[in-house]
């Protein structure tokens, strides 16, 4: 078991963001999270990674309460690709990548041969080898996002959380990055928890799907079972048709006009 | 630490020692560079003076008059540059300097009060008031910005709070100047900064603050790198962003507060030096912080030596650093726009 989220609520000041959420997340699965804007997406990720503490309820990771882990321990277990990937200082791409190894390197030690090898290998897999000595400030938005994504992979954690991690990538690189993450799930039994705006990408990549609505879990389970026209209409308030697509090998959604506009 | 950094640090340390000896030999009394270096060496080794009366006089001039001033200037320069580098790192803003949180205005207000009420009689009262003013301002700014819940500081809010509090204090200083009558000259002179007639106790004070502060900043240098990735990313790398931001803000401001209370307000060192050094080392704080420390020491000592021994009559150091630093900054800025 990776995560047990037990009856967790969270509020900012007096605005409730999550209400009595229960989740069980298993290793070796790719979880897609679908959430309308402002319905608790970032809050859920922040809680899972220990950046925020639950108001009520508790979160267990590998059977132990999240708050009993030190920050360093958590950083060795979980990596996050945050939504903000603007970096103000002109670090070289390789330096950024090496920051992913910080949780594994003692404070005043130099990176080991293995750290360099892992960084090199990850850059190669992510196809950013050509940027190695470029400055992060000189890269385009999409290129920078690939570097930030690769940095999280270099962290070599069992859980990878993606917060709209492909939002500014073209389709080729989106598929490339998600493919890397999916391979980690299948071959190494890692867990990927990924928030998507694109429902079809979410359905294609996530073997499991979590749909949230106004701070509650609207549905959670294998993507094939839970993804229905009624659910999407209810949560996102758009007309839609869902069919199984042979080419993608998953359910795909086509959208009609919005109910509310 | 890479070999290049070790090499840079070695060269800079050697240059600083050389500049200290050179600066000690320059001044009203004629002392050769070798004599000056010899006297400093003997003093470091704890040897007694052996020469004639002239050499004893030289010894007094160097050890009691020049050296405290030289070492204070170097330490203040190093401290301000380091604090500037740390501020720019925390606030993710290349325009930040050690005075961003209003430390200088607070110190100036405190010092003006002390001068206005002629508290100069008691030992250390102007520096004491300046320090109290700086620290009080720092905590007001942090109090205004601290949001409680998530224990995070928004850099925009910190900068804004610093500007607001600074503006209030500036109005206060203007009012004190208005009230001060003939003492207004003293206030203005203090505000422009000076290392004239610095003593060993003052140097010791600055040295302790800068040394302790540097160690704290170096300890967290790696975390500061992660903070450049944004607070959520830093947090996911195991960095306690809120706590480290607070520790570093207070540490860097303390260094600046002690420096200001001893030497008055010296601008541009804290802004300019980290920018120059980033060309040399890149933005990695583990290199940037120690190299900035040495470069800041070199530059401010150089400027003060220029004032003390080369220029006719004493120009206030704060004016000189702004006059030299400003155009250099414009040049660097312009050059960066073109690339």
Report on this structure.
The complex is a heterodimer of chains A (261) and B (339). Helices cover 33% and strands 30% of the residues of chain A. Chain A has nine helices and twelve strands. The termini of chain A are far apart. Chain A is α/β, with parallel strands linked by helices. The radius of gyration of chain A is 19 Å and the shape is globular. In chain A, the strands form three sheets. Chain A has a six-stranded mixed β-sheet with strand order 6-7-8-3-9-10, sandwiched between helices. In chain A, strands 2-1-4-5 form a four-stranded antiparallel β-sheet, with helices on one face. Chain B is mainly alpha-helical. Chain B has 14 helices and no strands. Chain B has helices at 3-25, 33-45, 53-91, 103-116, 125-145, 155-180, 184-191, 200-219, 221-227, 231-236, 241-263, 269-281, 285-310, 317-338. The model of chain B has no long low-confidence stretch (mean pLDDT 88). At the A-B interface, helix 2, strand 6, helix 3 and helix 5 of A face helix 9 and helix 10 of B.
Total of DSSP H or I helical runs spanning 4+ residues of chain A: 9
Q: Kindly state the number of beta strands of chain B.
A: 0
The structural domain count of chain B equals 1
Structural class designation of chain A: alpha/beta
Ranges of chain B where pLDDT stays below 50 over 5 or more residues in a row are none
Provide the CATH topology of chain A: Rossmann fold
Average predicted confidence as pLDDT of chain B? 88
Mean pLDDT of chain A: 90
CATH class of chain A: Alpha Beta
- C-alpha Rg of chain A (nearest Å): 19 Å
CATH architecture of chain B: Orthogonal Bundle
Record the strand order, biggest sheet of chain A.
6-7-8-3-9-10
Which percent range fits the helix content of chain A? 25-40%
Instruction: Please count the beta strands of chain A (DSSP E, at least 2 residues each).
Output: 12
The unreliable regions of chain A are none
N/C terminus separation of chain A = 43 Å
Multimeric state of these chains?
heterodimer
Major beta sheet of chain A, specifics? 6 strands, mixed
Largest interface, chains and sizes = A-B, 40 and 26 residues
């Amino acid at each position: 078991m990776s995560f047990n989220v037990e009856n967790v609520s969270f509020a900012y000041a007096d605005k409730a963001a999550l209400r009595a959420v229960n989740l069980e997340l298993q290793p070796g699965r790719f979880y897609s999270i679908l959430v309308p804007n402002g319905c608790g997406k970032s809050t859920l990720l922040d809680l899972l990674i220990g950046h925020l503490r639950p108001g009520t309820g508790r979160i267990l990771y590998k059977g132990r309460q999240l708050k009993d882990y030190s920050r360093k321990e958590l950083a060795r277990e979980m990596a996050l690709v945050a939504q903000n990937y603007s970096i103000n200082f002109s670090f070289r791409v390789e330096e950024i990548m090496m920051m992913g190894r910080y949780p594994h390197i003692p404070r005043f030690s130099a990176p080991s041969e293995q750290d360099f090898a892992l960084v090199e290998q990850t850059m190669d897999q992510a196809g950013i080898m050509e940027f190695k000595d470029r400055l992060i400030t000189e890269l385009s938005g999409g290129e920078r996002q690939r570097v930030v994504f690769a940095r999280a992979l270099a962290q070599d954690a069992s859980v990878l959380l993606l917060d709209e991690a492909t939002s500014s990538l073209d389709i080729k690189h989106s598929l490339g990055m998600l493919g890397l993450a999916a391979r980690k799930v299948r071959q190494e039994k890692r867990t990927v928890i990924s928030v998507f705006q694109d429902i079809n990408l979410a359905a294609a990549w996530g073997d499991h799907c979590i749909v949230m609505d106004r701070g509650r879990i609207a549905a959670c389970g294998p993507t094939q079972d839970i993804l229905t026209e009624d659910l999407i209409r209810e949560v996102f308030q758009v007309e839609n048709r869902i069919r199984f697509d042979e080419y993608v090998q998953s359910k795909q959604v086509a959208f009609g006009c919005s109910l509310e506009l | 630490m890479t070999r290049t950094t070790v090499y840079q640090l070695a060269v800079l340390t050697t240059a600083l020692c050389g500049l200290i000896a050179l600066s000690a030999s320059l001044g009203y009394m004629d002392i050769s560079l070798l004599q000056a270096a010899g006297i400093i060496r003997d003093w470091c080794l704890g040897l007694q003076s052996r020469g004639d009366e002239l050499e004893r006089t030289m010894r007094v001039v160097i050890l009691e008059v020049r050296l405290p001033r030289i070492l204070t200037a170097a330490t203040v320069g190093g401290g301000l540059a380091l604090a500037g580098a740390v501020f720019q790192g925390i606030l993710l803003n290349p325009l930040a300097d050690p005075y961003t949180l209003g430390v200088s205005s607070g110190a100036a207000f405190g010092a003006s009060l002390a001068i206005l009420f002629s508290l100069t009689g008691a030992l250390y009262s102007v520096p004491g008031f300046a320090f109290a003013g700086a620290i009080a301002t720092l905590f007001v700014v942090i109090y205004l910005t601290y949001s409680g819940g998530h224990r995070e500081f928004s850099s925009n809010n910190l900068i804004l709070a610093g500007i607001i509090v600074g503006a209030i204090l500036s109005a206060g200083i203007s009012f004190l100047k208005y009230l001060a009558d003939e003492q207004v000259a003293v206030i203005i002179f203090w505000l422009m900064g000076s290392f004239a007639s610095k003593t060993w106790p003052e140097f010791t004070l600055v040295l302790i603050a800068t040394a302790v502060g540097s160690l704290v900043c170096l300890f967290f240098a790696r975390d500061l790198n992660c903070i450049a990735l944004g607070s959520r990313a830093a947090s996911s790398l195991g960095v306690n962003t809120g706590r480290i931001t607070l520790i570093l803000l207070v540490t860097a401001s303390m260094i600046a507060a002690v420096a200001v209370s001893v030497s008055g307000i010296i601008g541009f060192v804290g802004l300019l030096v980290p920018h120059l050094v980033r060309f040399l080392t890149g933005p990695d704080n583990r290199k940037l912080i120690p190299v900035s420390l040495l470069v800041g020491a070199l530059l401010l000592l150089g400027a003060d030596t220029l004032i003390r021994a080369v220029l006719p009559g004493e120009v206030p150091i704060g004016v000189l650093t702004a006059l030299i630093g400003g155009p250099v900054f414009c040049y660097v800025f312009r050059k960066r726009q073109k690339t």
